[in-house]
Amino acid sequence: MKRMGSKQVLVPTVSCLLLLFCLGCKCLALELEATQTATLKVDASSQLARKIPDTLFGMFFEEINHAGAGGIWAELVSNRGFEAGGLHTPSNIDPWSIIGDDASIFVVTDRTSCFSRNIIALRMEVLCDECPAGGVGIYNPGFWGMNIEDGKSYNLVMYVKSAEAADLTVSLASSDGLQKLASVTVPVAGTSNWTKVEQKLIAKGTNRTSRLQITSNKKGVVWFDQVSLMPSDTFKGHGFRTELISMLLDLKPRFLRFPGGCFVEGEWLRNAFRWRESIGPWEERPGHFGDVWHYWTDDGLGYYEFLQLSEDLGAAPIWVFNNGISHNDEVSTAAIAPFVKDVLDSLEFARGSANSTWGSVRAAMGHPEPFPVKYVAIGNEDCGKKYYLGNYLKFYNAIRESYPDIQMISNCDGSSKPLDHPADLYDFHVYTDSKTLFNMKGTFDKTSRTGPKAFVSEYAVWRTDAGRGSLLGSLAEAAFLTGLEKNSDIVQMASYAPLFVNDNDQTWNPDAIVFNSWQQYGTPSYWMQKFFRESSGAMIHPITISSSYSGSLAASAITWQDSGNSFLKVKIVNFGPDTVSLTISVSGLQVSINALGSNATVLTSSNVKDENSFSNPNKVKWCQQTNLCP
Ligand SMILES: *[C@@H]1O[C@H](CO)[C@@H](O)[C@H](O)[C@H]1NC(C)=O
Ligand SMILES: *[C@@H]1O[C@H](CO)[C@@H](O)[C@H](O)[C@H]1NC(C)=O
Ligand SMILES: *[C@@H]1O[C@H](CO)[C@@H](O)[C@H](O)[C@H]1NC(C)=O
Ligand SMILES: *[C@@H]1O[C@H](CO)[C@@H](O)[C@H](O)[C@H]1NC(C)=O
Fold first, then answer.
1. What pLDDT was estimated at residue 239?
2. d(CA 235, CA 73)
3. For residue 206, which atom of ligand 1 is closest to its CA?
């Protein structure tokens, strides 16, 4: 049976050192005869222990698969400013649509917004004298339906303009409009000015695929812009979807790399992420089309929000910025200076005092204290591009001068040969089949112990064996991570990729967390990471595996302190087809082991290709058993 297990042992203050336990997994539906044996020897003496970096395991968040827009960012309206269809009018207002017909309503975009950076607004002309009951108007289905829940309140903000006074009806309704979950009348004064409308809607029913409707019964013209609907119960009131954030918190991430990935580069530079366009009042953000992953973002989840998210997770922010290079075009090093200045401004935004030019913008957004940005990545996967090295050095030197403490991450792999440029860390990305990744647990054994450290900023099993997140994939990843723990003298950070997928837009497969408008579950790769959540900052100890089956096994052992107690955790991965009877012995502990405080945690299933799903989110199970030790 393939599985991953760990033993966590409470160590109080007496002496004694030997421990024996076998991992007969009680979580399994059927008990299997062990066909192999293995002995694990852990040397837990302090002489041979080494501290793992505090930052070893963290997260990589990319705006891919609607991870942010329609994902952790709780905004329910999609294309809230009508900008997604582009600047040429009339434009496509998708996913907005119309309630009524050609005879009763005419809706068109124009360039009359009060917001200069996102000039498109929606002009709605009601044509009917005797409008149908319920009126005519527009609706927005959100991101594959809005999750509207009974008793919850939702904050509507929108900008409207109408030459004559009118009463609008704003409602939350089922996708066919028949079931009304909430409804308010919004009087609009007749003026030539735009007015901001703020209204609370309280749902008196639940529908997971609802829509927002704005209707009228009165002949006339009303303009709309920047229509937002936010649930009132976002995480810390910061706009994040609470259930998704709690899944992240459960992994205790030590860093957050953001916002990409290829999202940072763009297919073309004109579509790359621009931090400056993603800060300040949300109404004034232009939004942009992410041309690598093919969707529009209103950029409510912007640079500031990513910094806030890092703080909320207790994770060190790692800002990946565009270095003047996209997938298809590049800024030459001779012309890179304004891009360098732009990045220095972004660092002032994060770290500058509330009195500095950009720090004051951050303070005005509600965060006078600086955000402690200590790491930046100069581009994503751009090593070897024509202007990478030249541009890299411009960014590197400018940042080094202004922020000597910031650690800079190069895109060039320094694991097999030294880099030809200065760097604190280098990116290492691996997506491969499970067997290859399992065998890559020794990859960093051979790497030089001097020079920049590795940041394994993207790793995952994909394609062959991966399914939509299989147990087998997670086992190979776990084995790979035990190798990173052992090599954490030169591997400083590691993160799985991608973190999230909205089930309605699976551009990249597999992913750690799958969600839709109202549900979420972890794939085995998510649960696998939970085995490593105590590793950052812990002590790693030598471990040896004696078995004729050792080619299919991987293991590591750590100890750490928590509220006065010491803990020992031994992780074992069985990647082979046979069950294994395990004997674990620990030497070198200063104290005895408290068997009563010990337990075993197992991640397994009846078939290695098993996956979790919305209907069976715990098929590949993480289960804990207490007092297993004899
Ligand atoms: C939600 O609305 C759809 C479309 O009207 C309907 O089929 C579904 O039954 C509704 N769900 C609930 C929980 O009322
Ligand atoms: C419209 O706004 C301008 C500028 O704020 C103000 O001077 C003017 O009085 C407003 N007009 C109406 C009709 O409210
Ligand atoms: C910021 O400006 C205020 C008012 O001008 C001043 O009192 C304060 O000392 C300044 N703070 C810093 C950190 O410069
Ligand atoms: C497993 O042991 C650890 C350490 O004593 C404890 O924190 C954890 O709650 C235990 N788990 C269960 C399910 O008992």
1. 98
2. 10
3. 13
Residue with CA at minimum distance from ligand 2 atom 1: 193
d(CA 460, CA 426): 18
Residue nearest to atom 9 of ligand 3 (CA): 355
Specify the pLDDT at position 624. Answer: 77
CA distance 366 to 451: 40
3-state secondary structure string, 270-282? Answer: HHCCCHHHHCCCH
Lowest-confidence segment of 7-11, 185-189, 408-412, 515-519 by average pLDDT: 7-11
The yes-or-no answer to whether 59-74+234-530 and 97-231 have a common fold is: no
**Residues within 6 Å of ligand 3 by CB:** 353, 355
Ligand nearest to the CA of 191: 2
Which CATH code of 3.40.50, 3.90.320, 1.10.10, 2.60.40 fits the domain covering 11-52+538-626? 2.60.40
* Axis-axis angle for helices 357-364, 337-351 (nearest 10): 50
User: Does ligand 1 lie within 6 Å of residue 179's CB atom?
Assistant: yes
Residue in 207, 208, 516, 518 to alter for ligand 1 test, most ligand atoms within 8 A of Cβ: 207
**Ligand 3 centroid vs 356 CA: distance in angstroms?**
10
Six-digit token string for 587: 């030497």
**216-252 pLDDT per residue, tens:** 999 999 999 999 999 999 999 999 999 999 999 999 9
HEC string for 13-40: CCCCCCCCCCCCCCCCCCCCCCCEEEEE
One DSSP character per residue, 421-461 reads: S--SEEEEEEEE-HHHHHHGGGGGGGS-SSSSEEEEEEEEE
* Ligand 1 pocket residue status of 180, Cβ below 6 Å: no
CATH of domain 59-74+234-530: 3.20.20.80
Q: ∠ CA(331), CA(333), CA(337), 5° rounding? A: 85
Domain 97-231 - what CATH class? mainly beta
Domain boundaries, the chain: 11-52+538-626, 59-74+234-530, 97-231
Q: Which ligand is nearest to the CA of 597?
A: 4
